[in-house]
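hey m, so remember when u said the tokens were messed up on ur end? i reran from scratch. heres the input so u can diff it against urs
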Amino acid sequence: MSKRSGAPTRATATASVVRALRESEERFRALAELSRDTLMRFDRQYRHLYVNAVVEVQTGIPAAHFLGRTHRELGFPEPLVALSEAAIERVFVSAQPHRIEFELPTGVWIDWQLVPELDSDGRVAYVMTCGRDITAHKQAEAAETSHRQALAAQVAESTAALEEATLGLHSEKAERRQAEERLRQLLEHLPVGVYRSTPEGQILEANQGLAEILGFPSAESLHRLNISKLYVARRDRDDHIDRLRSVGIAPGEFQLRRRDGRVIWVRDFPRAIRDETGKLSCFAGVLVDITEQKQAQEAVRKSEELYRTLARNFPDGAVCLFDHELRFSLVEGTGFESSGLGKQALEGRTLREALPPERAAQIEPVLKAALSGELRRIEIPAGDHTYSLRALPLRDQDGCVWAGMAVVQDITVQKQTEEHLRFQSLHDGLTNLFNRTFFEEHLAALSRGGRLPVSVIMADVDGLKDVNDRLGHAAGDELLRHAAEILRASFRPGDVVARIGGDEFSVLLPDASEEAGQAVIARLRENLAAHHASGCTCNLSFSLGLATASANLTLPEAVRLADARMYADKAARRPAT
């Protein structure tokens, strides 16, 4: 019987593939876990294939509960499920990035950006999403809107009261006092500061709102205050007053220091008041505390800077923004350093200004496709490196493409790993000959092609089990390596020589008649004799079987016939007992 003991070797190769894929997935997950945004991957059934740990912060649901489930199965509200699934489906159908905003049941607002993940054929295999928490931004917008509405309402009310007070000037003295009192009470309760000051900054009149903004107990306590002393930067005060003296009305933003030492941002709406001779007599205006608005703007700025930092430190990669003239406006990351094209060499220059003509001609169609709304990816060999370039469009709120983004990553190690894994998957680890998987794939391809004749040789190493039992598996492995060396030297470069079992080898000889196959077997036996004559003591011999596929014999039938003839050869040469 044949001794097919190749399973351990195939298991070792399979384990290597699995281990390499696991290491690649672990590197991806490690990078994803560094993100402060929620990263997800969806299949076409809207199931979560991957989520990072940030999702629990945003949703209150552990990340492990998402895997394999849809939003509906996780119990999200139906309108939110419909919105998210429609967005995912849109990316699968269009292969274009998409972006939506929504509020989670936890009250967290999410800016959800969806991008297609393409397979090697350019089809959308999965959808990757990045969910950024924009709750602070939404709250700042809502607060600003509410503040403006309240201010508008109170200003309208104040205007009406002022009109009423003006009309009251023509009334009796008592009515004038009542109108003045109503106006004073109205100003006292405005949430903004109303003031009148001397040109030097001495407060003449103020309402309670100004006192609260500046941290003073009452409006009366401001009458001894020179507001020019509260400016954090004296130059802000000088510039503000110079503009006001020049144009009469000069809104401005600057920082003031409150009585308790806290620094605040304010927006001033002042007006220069002049007497009948044109001489400046005082300033009158409204002061608004905009500290929260400034803090929200700073939070947005820091968030954008964080994205720049992440792009700048993108492992083995770079992120580039380019306009419709293919001019790079931003370049961050280290992906170009090995090629000598860093930030200084690219930023501010067009593609053809920065790169050699042949390289620019290769990349230009990809960038132009992105500017026309398409997502494109190419691989660029450069010396001993290989780069992946992915170009995608950037759209404004109206959906118009205003720029493009190119994500470049050095995939040299990845390509080398893929090539190594492919070699391992198709070759026998001990002999470096093709393995059974490749043999059967090539056999099927030759069968489909119908190209005849094709000769098949089956070879079995005699006595391998005895060598393993007497001398150990290391000696058996060495015997197999000698066998592979002789087989490799006996056949043409286009022939498929494969180890298909423990001691069994098979050879496919395209365009070889049975006579040609017999000549090859004779050459094999001559090479075996020469190997022994060279001083090798391995005592190697083969049992051989030959069959040729023709119009009357299919290739699978020829394989079975060659196998039977190999066993017959082994039986004929076995010593009689």
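this time it looks ok to me. Confidence is low (pLDDT under 50) at residues 1-6. if urs says something different then somethings off w ur setup not the seq
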